[in-house]
Amino acid sequence: MRGRKRSLLGFAVFATLFYYYCLPFTSWSSSGGGQGGELESARLERLMNSDAEKTSSLRSNSSFDWSKVRFKYLPGGQLRRPPTGRPVSLPQVQHPFPPESPAATKIRNARRQQVRDLFCKNWKSYRKYAWRKDALQPLSAEYKDQFSGWAATLVDSLDTLWIMGLRAEFDEAVAAVADIDFGTSSSVSVNMFEVNIRYLGGLLAAFDLSGRDLLLRKAVELGDLLYAGYNTKDRMPVDFISFEAAKTGEGLMVEGSVVSASPGTLSLEMTHLSQVTGDPKYYDAVSRLMDVFEKGQAWTKIPGLWPIYVSMQTQDVVNGSYFSIGGGADSLYEYLPKMYALLGGLEPRYGAMSKDFIDAANRTFFFRPMLPAEEDVLMIGPARVEDDGTVLLDPESEHLGCFVGGIYGLAGRLFRRRDWVDDLGSKLTHGCIYAYRAMPTGIMPERYNMAACRSRGRCPWDSARFDAEAAKQQGLWSSHLPLGFTTARDPRYLLRPEAIESVFVMYRITGRREFQDAAWDMFASVSKGTATKYANAAVLDVTRAEYPLPQEDYMESFWLAETLKYFYLVFSPPDLISLDDYVLNTEAHPFRRPKGLKRSRPL
């Protein structure tokens, strides 16, 4: 309780007692507004932010001041600042939703309440068995610290608590954030990528929503820690910060090779930290880093795309023969249109980089799978480039790639490309929905293979060809798999959010009820198959409907930060975390977009 005012002790006790009730949230009468015509976002802000000054006296518990480190390697020249001025008039992203019928409102609110109830069950167990630890183990009711011991689940879930209207739980969690000591770590090195997206992203989003000044102070502490990761000869970031060495300021050594997503996913959070603090150093660091990716984009073996492995040590993002838009590379691409939106369209290079990768990825990674009923959907697979320049697609899809449909939808709106929304975004999202619905459990496996059609045109089912493709899988095909799947190479479900993420985004962009209905089917299957006594657990095999499904004592913080948040938002009124007001980072943390000119209507 170091540094807190005595007057807050009673409040903390009240918050702890009130927590266990997890009271139902008031339902709103329409999709566009609340009782008496009030928007849900406005009502929620009143509920969650009234008397917020009570937390202003909270003091940060930190044993080390990262802002005082004297770096050996300093940025050359004048620091770059985020572009200022009135943002350009970007198109409206969200569908103009009409009023909702009372019957539809009743169904939607009932579904949303079920999502909220499940979150509350999980949070109660985390609060009881793993409070201030990184993760709850949902089978044993124990805990683990895998992300430096800074309460990853707590910080990652802050904005979910706010969005779900859990005021007492949110206030208690904010008070707990004050005691996180970013001057110590349970591990000798700190992963820049994970700390950036989960911790810094979580703190910034919770600050944007609540205005609690403590959260911004903690974000600055953490931003200064991450900034130390750029104290290298060429000002390129390390992948892992050697914690004690970083404190000396003597400089760090950049690793020889990293997956491209690691450095490529640092831009959004550090840029937003500069936006909300006015300190340009964070933006300056990532802006120089993105120079490397910008300069190399047209010179790789697949122009427009970057290889999975890059070297920040040599600033080589060009040489490499293996390419993917899934795991290892995913959020590098995700952040390009999101940076364009976050900067209000005032940094054109992110628009150009977005368009280049979107066209190249469409040519390289996407394929229509051969299916018994000839469903017209798209799947995603990695590719490699042969010595003669031939590009070979591997029709192995993964859950991590399911975010792509939503990104094509978002970019299609931002850059006025209807085909990216209606054709590519929709078909990619429906491909992941298909993978969920095809499995007997209703849950998509982590990795699977399918037979690729020879073209995206008509693709009749060919049993002989399917048998031949299945035979190529070296014994990984099994007769219990749904027809069309040649493997379930990794049959697990790890509580991942990428599929529901795209379903949510495509619903908000198009307004099509089919996406909301798909979300409910997914939630019903996932909540059933992953349920434990205490919370929800990863499933070891989703290809056999033998309940209870085999589970692993594992629950990542993104289950509460992303997966359940997206399920909740898809059943919420569309003004709540509107895509015209927020950009969500890769951990589903919403950052406020700059206010600008009146947006044009959607396409």
TrEMBL record:
Pathway: Protein modification; protein glycosylation. Ca(2+) binds at residue 586. GO terms for biological process: carbohydrate metabolic process; ERAD pathway. Its cofactor is Ca(2+). Pfam families: Glyco_hydro_47 (PF01532). Belongs to the glycosyl hydrolase 47 family. GO terms for molecular function: calcium ion binding; mannosyl-oligosaccharide 1,2-alpha-mannosidase activity. The active site is at residues 194, 330, 446, 498. It comes from Lasiosphaeria miniovina. This is alpha-1,2-Mannosidase. It comes from the Eukaryota. Coiled coil: none annotated. GO terms for cellular component: endoplasmic reticulum; membrane. Keywords: Calcium, Disulfide bond, Glycosidase, Hydrolase, Metal-binding.
